[in-house]
């Protein structure tokens, strides 16, 4: 719509050149208007009342098929050529055009409505020294406007002042980037001082120079000149249209960009249009058909030429030739006449029907209750309705981890304190008891501050803590102190934690429930409630987490004056720094850690160290020096940290469960059985990713080998990849076998396909972001692809959003396979857009992924239903539809071809023109739609039972060029029967009263009746699933044919429209003849019986998987329930490291005053819902990272 | 409860339709249906085939070509150029009684009534008696819309213009005397054509309707003179005209000329010698066409057509054969039951 706007803008002489820089003055409309900046009105609609018809028709005729039919209609107007009345093409074309036009119009009306609604929103604008209510569309660049709490931001604004301290405002950017967390913007002090003084604001005459309109949401550059001073402006001072003001009473801003120039509008618009492989195939086929049509017409034109020379030229006694007409001209004209007659090989209703089928199947996805998630009331949604059948052909799935495979909920699950493990339940005989929903929970009601959503099942731990066990108390004290969580206490006793990673939140909450409640912090202190006693610790230092250190520590002084360093971190790192006295404890803890790791839990080791004052003083001195040093600050700090974090005393270890979504391992197993390869692309660390890989059964202990590629140079990566490949497949050639082919329209597109290579045994591949960056380079990407495709499981960790997309594109390009990407966050958008099909997990935080996805639902496990049931059915239905549709039209058309040899190649139609008009649109439209919307080979339960049913789709087995050729041959056979049987039966016979029966009209009726009956029986044969609707459509259509035919051939119709219905009486006179019916019967059976016989024989000789399962369905009413295997307990030597998902800690922020100020001054960011459902869930922690993508970068 | 419902506002309806659980019949091509089905169809076909074949055999047909190609052909004399009002006698004999009503057809070969431009060359509105189209016939009649004097042609168009104009008289020769065997030319066209599709303008006398129009160029007399004796067989509703106007689907065709169902011939044509007097007017040799006459009686399945009977017999046998093949395949290769 932006382009339309600018198009009209150009027409009006505006915007002659591209804007280089934006310059405007606040409160100076005349000055600003001289630049012709766009005002704040938006226009997303395409048409208005007058432009609708021409523009929409123009759009529609840009589609090749429509243009073709327009061309045909033009041909039909030429009397020398016209072999069919104009209505045979016009009626279907007008029908198709008007259906599309109505749809477009209703879409556009909706856009008009929403435009109008948005443009007419009211906002307070400062005009002539007073605040006036104005409509949004009247706002101009340079206006100062006032926004109030919970209002939408009107345009892109430069923030001037706000009601909050420090000129802060809070905005929600959900509509813009999909993130639900609040963001903070801060005005310049110099403008902020104006406050809400109208006089000051009215007198404000700052001049802003800034970048021209663009679509980068995270960048803004500009300057503000005020009273000769120049201030630089950045993204922090800009409120973007699409945001909502939250927790801020009011704020003032000056408009920078309005309407179409806003970043919101610049971002919307061009969405790449995805097309399915069936679409591409269809285009190729239609092109082939055009070629075929041309050759048929050429043959007939040549035939006409020969006939003219041999017969026509002498038949002139009864049919004189026009002046100057010779065989060549006649042949040329008959070519075009046959183009008109045979046009039905390119069926106009094909595209419309395909869209209808896809729409129907999309509705079935929307309606599916088994993909509806009651917990947050989210149904599945088919956001794109044109990709359904591709869901049945997926070969590769690229999945995000956090929020997709996992719930992004961390639960404190087990712990090991001083060599003793807690968290598991055993019965009297010492057998482990499985913990279920019903298992009794530990009662935390003694603790006023406990989080009611926290659950723990092992009572002994609480008893130990309450008994006063010093190690246990120290353990939880550490958890309550050593972190960077922000507390919020809305009301007395109602604590909310804002944690940077959910792991941290889980640990602090665990401490809270076990009586060590972290309550508040200042930059210098931490206040905690320890077993009911308020204790304030002096916070001396935070030794923050980073990637290399893999640990964090705090140094605190307790009220008694004792100094302690508390440290938590990756077990391997902590164990290196332990005091030798802990060796025995270490052994015991390692045992527990192995157990936890085997269960796929994220583990941390906890340790502490008492410090003495004098050392601490010196250390702090050096710390201060280091942190203010100009050079080598980082290194010096690291050294200091390293020095103090040693000789630690081990306390124990925690195990946090990164909760998988329900049914993830089962889903992955099912998809693997369907021969779909799943690659996990995650921004997480290698350890966490591997962990999840194990817990969702993608990586298995019994795999032959799991290769880890983590080199830091291109050579290293290459070597590791090659080594892995040689190990898996030693005999494989060094060079990948690339099959080059051409595809697409006109075979212009070159494709390269890397062949699959067989490997025996299962392997896994884990590759990290650094290595992936090298591996995705041009010279290594094929190596990566080969190696990765040999492995059962591929996990890429620490990948950036861009890399995610690159991986998808790599597979797309060289595997020619259909890919699906599934994710939930903004970082998955690129891959969702890159893949053939993007799936968004809805109902989690953020809508960005969902907004750019093609399908969305709430739980990963619904993917198997989407693919194995809906996808498979859609593909099956589409293929059956295409096959039948082409068959039906070819057969219809070929009969004309044969008849040409008997009518002097004169382009005489075999059927009545009305039949030609109605054949596709009325007589055969609904039955085939009925089949292709309702058909199912086996029901959903059997589809799950036999995921192998999915594989034919991946191999394009149901409809391909080969199937198309077969379909043409079948049509050829049928049309021969359909023409020559009636011909032989009729050519020399008469009615039973001696009258004519071999006349043209009777023959036409006979041929068309045979055709329609054969088409219906063929459809019956193709229909696997006969619902009442199918019955109604098939028998209804047949009945409608006879009813319509009898009506059109009735006396009444002839008397009213004499020249339109010349077939009067034909039906009555010929359908009462026994030999007509005997001919119809013979023709139908002769067309159908060979199909039945060959299908039957093929089912016996070479049954497909579908045949086998269908056979089984007949025997057993319901599939046997899948055996429930108890989850096997694994003891693993593989251990996770510091399992936090974030890259850099929050230490700086925690100790900075500014951050706390702003936190205290507002209500919590996330209001808890009071719904009973929410109470059942563990508390959800959200990251408060400013930029979600930053944490994913390597 | 209310709250719960609100919570689940987006829950899709649980109907068989939305959940794709509509009760359905799921037939399969199983051996139990296909093989017996083929046997039954085969038997039925053979039965029908036998009936058709026997019936077709019982129908008697006598075809006589009278184009006059050969020099000893009786109508050879009429094929000379510039011969007009030529009458030739075609003698033939019938060995046995032609049972029942005998139908007399004329047939044309290599004649393209189904040529598109020929087929569209008529004006249905004019033929339904609309006088406006008498004055200005539809363009579809091209090239016979107006004559060289720009007078409208009625009936216009190639089909009407090329109306078959040979006439026949049949005589039975008994001991040298010729007895006329009358042709009944009434009721040889479709009821709908005669009563609905073609109508004379309601002008009496009919001749007046044709004022300031001309007869088709090839016609010897105007439409209102086709049968002066019987107004119900005159003009556009002349039965021979109607038969001709119902154009044939294929280039070899025959059209009903009359029935022999009067007097002594009501029971059929007795064996004996006959002579057919042909007024030979219609030129076909220029395009290598052939003219013939056909005597035939009919049965419940219409005229003689051996094809249907034979086809049914062959297909029926093939069905039986196929069912045996399928039985063998099924018994031998029946696909294994296990997964």
From TrEMBL, chain A:
Catalytic activity: ATP + H2O + phospholipidSide 1 = ADP + phosphate + phospholipidSide 2
Active site: 400 (4-aspartylphosphate intermediate)
Cofactor(s) this protein cannot do without: Mg(2+)
Membrane topology: Multi-pass membrane protein
PANTHER family: PHOSPHOLIPID-TRANSPORTING ATPASE, PROBABLE PHOSPHOLIPID-TRANSPORTING ATPASE
One GO process term, biological-process aspect: phospholipid translocation
P-type ATPase C-terminal domain mapped to chain residues: 850-1103
Binding of Mg(2+), residues: 400, 402, 824, 828
Stated name of the protein: Phospholipid-transporting ATPase
SUPFAM superfamilies: Calcium ATPase, transduction domain A, Calcium ATPase, transmembrane domain M, HAD-like, Metal cation-transporting ATPase, ATP-binding domain N
P-type ATPase N-terminal domain residues: 26-89
Keyword Cell membrane: no
Major site of localization recorded for this protein: membrane
Pfam families xref list: Cation_ATPase, PhoLip_ATPase_C, PhoLip_ATPase_N
Residue numbers binding ATP: 400-402, 504, 545, 568, 602, 682-684, 798, 804, 827-828
Assigned GO CC terms: plasma membrane; trans-Golgi network
Tree of life domain: Eukaryota
Assigned EC number: 7.6.2.1
Automatic annotation (TrEMBL), chain B:
GO cellular component, as recorded: endoplasmic reticulum; Golgi apparatus; plasma membrane
Keywords: Membrane, Transmembrane, Transmembrane helix
Coiled coil stretches, renumbered: none
Subcellular location per the Swiss-Prot or TrEMBL entry: Membrane
The organism's place on the tree of life at top rank: Eukaryota
The family this protein is said to belong to: Belongs to the CDC50/LEM3 family.
The name this protein goes by in its record: Cell cycle control protein
UniProt keyword Metal-binding, yes or no: no
InterPro entries for the chain: CDC50/LEM3_fam
Pfam families to which the protein is assigned, alphabetical: CDC50
PANTHER family from the UniProt entry: CELL CYCLE CONTROL PROTEIN 50, CELL CYCLE CONTROL PROTEIN 50B
Organism: Perca fluviatilis (European perch)
GO annotation, biological process: phospholipid translocation
Bilayer-spanning residue ranges: 33-54, 310-331
